[in-house]
Amino acid sequence: MADNSVLTPPLIFILSQPRSGSSMLQRVLGSHSQCMTTSEPWVLLHPIYALRPRGLKAKYSEATAYRGLMGFLSVFEDGEEEYYQALRQMWSTLYAKAAATAGKPIFIDKTPRYYLIGKEINRLFPDALMIVLIRNPMAVLVSVLDTWVKEDWALLSNPPLKRDLFEGPGYLQSICEQVPGVMTVRYEDFVDQPEVDLQRICERMGIVFEPGMLRYGHYQKPAGELGDPVGVDRETAPVQHRKEQWKARIGSSVVVAGVARGYLKELDEGLLLKWGYSPEEMWSAVAAGERWWSRRLPWDLLLQVPSSLPGKLLKPCLILFARFLERRGP
C-alpha cells in the first residue's frame, strides 16, 4: 500500500469560473510576506485526467495512453492510490521548491479550471486550503464577452468556454458541498470588505493578516503569461465599482441582452439563490437591453453548435448581424 506520510508544503488553491476576479484575489494573497505564486500553473489537470478514459486529447492517442496506464497500475494492490502518492510527492516537492525561490513557505496555485478536479485535489492535498471564488454569473458572462469574445461571436460555442459558463457553477457548488474544509469567497463581498475574508484565510493558514497586502499593485506581478490580461492591472487594490457594471453592459446592447437571456435560461435558479444572487434582477437587466424586435431573434444560436441544417445556415447570418449591431452601437 502507498505511504501517506509525504510531507506537503502549506498550499492554497483558488478555483472559480474564469473571469470571476481570481487574478485579483491571487494578487492580494500573493502580496503577503509568506506567500508565493505564479500566474496560473495548470499543472494538476493533465496527470489527474490521465486517470480518466475521456476528457483528455493528445497527439499520441490518449485512449491508448489511458489503457497503458491502467495496465501499469494493475500490478499494485491499490494502483490508483500509488499513483496519487507519486503525484503528491512530485508536486509537493515542486510547489515547495517554487515557494523557496522567493524565500516563502506557502505556495498559491490559482487555476480557475481546477473546478473540474476539485475533489481530486482534495484527495491529493487534504491539508491544503481550497478557496472557491464565486461571482454573479451574469457578470462573468459580460466579462467573457468583453475580454475574450469581443465581436467573434462564434467563440461562444467553443467547448471549454461553454463549459466554464454553463457547467462551472454546478462544479463549484458540488465542491462546496462535498469537499471538507472548503472556504467560499464571494467576489462582491470581497471587494466591499476584503479584510473580512483575508482575516479568515490568514487564520486558516496560521499567518498574520498584513494590511499592506491589499495594495497588491505595489508588489511584483506573478511570473507567467496566464491570468487576467486586462482588469487586474488597471487597479492597485480591490475596487467596488466593477460589481454592477454587468447591468449597464447588458442594457447597452441588444446582442449582449439576447445572449444573456439565452445564458440565464440555462442557469440553475436554485443555485443562484443559494449564492445570494437575484434571478429577478438578472431578468430585469436583460429586459432593459432588449427591444421589441430583438426578442424575436434566436440569440441562443450564438451559444450553440447547431445540429439542424436551418440552424447551420442561420447562425452565420446571425453572427454577421450581431457584429453589425455591436459596431453600430446603442
Top keywords for this entry?
8% strand, 5 strands, Rossmann fold, globular, alpha/beta, 2 domains, 330 residues
- Report the span from N to C terminus: 65 Å
Under CATH at level 1, the class of the largest domain stands as: Alpha Beta
CATH superfamily of the largest domain: P-loop containing nucleotide triphosphate hydrolases
Q: Return Rg in Å.
A: 22 Å
Count of helix runs? 14
Helix content: 40-55%
Mean pLDDT: 89
The strands making up the biggest β-sheet line up spatially as: 2-3-1-4-5
Topology order in helix (H) and strand (E) letters: EHEHHHEHEHHEHHHHHHH
According to CATH, what is the topology of the largest domain? Rossmann fold
> Any idea how many domains?
2
Major sheet attributes: 5 strands, parallel
Structural class: alpha/beta
The shape is: globular
- Ranges with pLDDT <50 over ≥5 residues? none
- What's the CATH architecture of the largest domain? 3-Layer(aba) Sandwich
Overall strand count: 5
Strand content: 5-15%
Overview of the structural elements:
- The protein is an alpha/beta fold and 330 residues long.
- The protein folds into two domains: 11-137 and 160-242, Rossmann fold, CATH 3.40.50; 244-330, no CATH class.
- It contains 14 helices and five strands.
- The protein starts with 10 loop residues before the first strand and ends with a helix.
SSE layout and pairings?
Layout (H helix, E strand, L loop, with lengths): L10 E6 L5 H9 L4 E4 L6 H5 L12 H12 L5 H23 L4 E5 L7 H7 L4 E6 L2 H13 L9 H20 L4 E4 H6 L1 H12 L39 H7 L2 H13 L2 H7 L3 H11 L19 H20 L2
Parallel strand pairs: 1-3, 1-4, 2-3, 4-5
Helix pairs in contact: 6-10, 6-11, 10-13, 11-13
